[in-house]
Design brief:
Strand content: 15-25%
Distance between the termini: 55 Å
Structural class: alpha+beta
Largest sheet: 3 strands, antiparallel
Number of strands: 5
Shape: flat
Order of helices and strands: EHEEHEEHHH
Radius of gyration: 25 Å
């Protein structure tokens, strides 16, 4: 079913405690057919790196409100502080960093994604993670990931591109597959 005159009707008038709204999220997708387009759009909407939504909201009277949720769904918290690093001499006589810690100061700024100052949104405290991993630890962990997804069969075919990328990265880092 195809139509050049596409209209979205407002939601029905509802007798519930809160008004009923119809939300419209438009997305353009290249695909071979309608089903593939719908599947691709669904994956794009759910992706972690999806674009922030700009939505059209219709109330029961047909009033349209366009909302850009960019400023409402993400913010930056900029904390000024100090990094303390502990160095220890290794068996070759060189000092290597063995530990580091971030000590937060009192100066904290909040910004929207457009780098504009905003009031502090309500949010959960997130401790600072300054984990120090050696190159060999990173290689070992990435090696564990690739060996767990490169098991052959359908799973390996589904992740063939990712497996190739990780394999090349690990080989560049000096990892040799067992």
């Amino acid at each position: 079913m195809s139509s050049k005159d596409y209209r979205i009707n407002p939601p029905p008038k509802d007798a519930g405690e809160e008004p009923l709204f119809r939300i419209v999220y438009a997305i353009d997708v290249n695909a071979t057919d309608e089903r593939k387009a719908a599947e691709t759009a669904w994956q794009m909407i759910r992706a972690k790196d999806a674009f922030d939504p700009i939505l059209m909201v219709l109330d029961a009277d047909g009033k349209q409100t366009k909302l850009d949720l960019t400023d409402l769904l993400e913010f930056n918290k900029v904390t000024t502080g100090f990094v303390v690093q502990k160095f220890r001499k290794n068996n070759t006589g060189k000092f290597r960093c063995t530990y580091q810690e971030f000590i937060a100061g009192d100066d904290v700024q909040f910004e929207n994604v457009k780098d504009e100052s905003i009031e502090a949104p309500e949010h959960e405290y997130q401790q600072f993670n300054m984990t120090l991993l050696s190159s060999s630890q990173i290689i070992d962990r990435l090696g564990d990931v690739i060996t767990s997804i490169d098991v052959g069969g359908e799973q390996s075919r589904q992740f063939a591109n990712e497996i190739t990328i990780m394999d090349k990265l690990l080989r560049d880092l000096g990892w040799l597959k067992d």
